[in-house]
Amino acid sequence: MDYRIMTKKETDLIIDIRDYCFRHAYEGETLEDFRNWIEISTTIGAFNKERLVGQLMILPLQINLHGQIYDMGGIGFVATYPEYRNSGVMKQLIIHSLKEMKNRGQTISILGPFSVAFYRYFGWEVFFDRLNYNLPIEKIHVDKKNLNGIIRFDYSYMDNNILMVKEVYEKYALKTNGMMQRDEKWWKRLKMRQPKAMFAVVLNEEGEAEGYIRYLIQDMDFILLDFIALNIDAEQKLWQYIYVHQSNVSTVRGSAAAHESFGSTWENPQFEKKVIQDKMVRIVDVEKFLSAYPFNALEKTLYLKVTDHFAPWNQGVYKIENQKTTKIAEKEQDACLQMDITSLSSFLVGYHDINWYHYQNKAVATKEVLAGWAKAVPAEKPQFYGHF
């Protein structure tokens, strides 16, 4: 079996295997969008002689982690033809992808797993609890607001309004741990994936945008694709805007971060909610990741011992001192926090604090070492809504 980066001339092979292995074939603007991302991304193919039998695509993206922007490899469109499954092809594609991401400076990777257990074995871990909700529109409860400050538009009539949407998203993404940064390519992707989406933007008295929603109305459902508010006033105005659709909408469908206790402040917060854990994270290059990591003020030197069976360059001991990280030969065990790459990845992005990992036997350290790491790592829960 030969594993290599695929060329633009092999685009049709990439499309064929995607269409065969997933539920439906891409057509129209969705297919055009996929072709665009094939050009931008790195696709690793597994070949049996001249025949493509498996593939894995790495999308070049960025993510905000505790205020630090990292280059990220978004893993998607992972596929193997059925006759080559359970033969080690997928394992080799993943190993090659880790090497490729490291070479490209993508220090962290995120994917949506078909199986959490499968990708956990290779070092990825769940890191965000997303709350999906089906909200009867009559249960929306906010103080009635004057909606004169709302601007509504769609892709056929955008003018400069889309610039306000992008500015609001960027402000929110830069202050929210775990949010994916959206460049022009990603905004183009959203348009091609949901060309019938509509927007509503909230303006303050000075005419500045403070929030927006991107949404679809299908049958009797109001489907929220984005809900971004920079303050509570903008949030309430957006909910009021949604509520006034009650004559032609019965249910509002959307997502929120589970840790934000969505709807709990309303008069009747009992409606259908479901926690989904469908995104996983992995540090690709520990030394580079730690070197950029925004630790809190360090009171003492920290030592970290990492185990990583599929990215051997990460294995070893790291010394973190004065915001500088260096890899060292060894250190006495009692001075180190010991974690495998799986748990370390979700810990450093903020999924749980260090005491949770220690309780779960996923972190080995003395009480003194645990206390040092508890102070050093920012306590911000991540949010991630990107879909590959």
Describe what you observe in this structure.
This protein has 388 residues and is an alpha+beta fold. It has 3 domains: 2-106, Gcn5-related N-acetyltransferase (GNAT) (Aminopeptidase, 3-Layer(aba) Sandwich), CATH 3.40.630; 131-276, Gcn5-related N-acetyltransferase (GNAT) (Aminopeptidase), CATH 3.40.630.30; 285-376, SCP2 sterol-binding domain (Nonspecific Lipid-transfer Protein, Chain A), CATH 3.30.1050. Helix content is 29%, strand content 31%. The chain has 11 helices and 19 strands. It has helices spanning 11-21, 28-40, 89-103, 116-121, 161-175, 184-193, 232-243, 286-292, 341-348, 354-359, 367-376; strands spanning 2-5, 42-48, 51-65, 68-80, 108-111, 125-126, 130-136, 150-154, 180-181, 198-203, 209-218, 221-229, 251-257, 272-276, 280-283, 302-307, 316-321, 324-328, 336-340. Strands 1, 2, 3, 4, 5, 6, 9 and 15 form an 8-stranded mixed β-sheet that branches. Strands 8-10-11-12-13-7-14 form a 7-stranded mixed β-sheet, with helices on both faces. A 4-stranded mixed β-sheet has the order 18-17-16-19. The longest helix has 15 residues, at 89-103. The mean pLDDT is 95.
Query: Could you say which structural class the secondary elements and strand pairing correspond to?
Result: alpha+beta
- For this structure, the CATH topology of the largest domain is Aminopeptidase
Annotated CATH architecture of the largest domain: 3-Layer(aba) Sandwich
Radius of gyration: 23 Å
What number of domains? Answer: 3
Tell me the name of the CATH homologous superfamily of the largest domain: Gcn5-related N-acetyltransferase (GNAT)
* Shape type: globular
The helix/strand series, from N terminus to C terminus, equals EHHEEEHEHEEEHEHEEEHEEEHEEEEHHH
Quote the distance from N terminus to C terminus. 27 Å
Q: Low-confidence parts, pLDDT < 50 over ≥5 residues?
A: none
Pfam families: Acetyltransf_17, Acetyltransf_9, SCP2_2
Domain N-acetyltransferase: 1-143
Keywords: Transferase
GO molecular function: aminoglycoside N-acetyltransferase activity
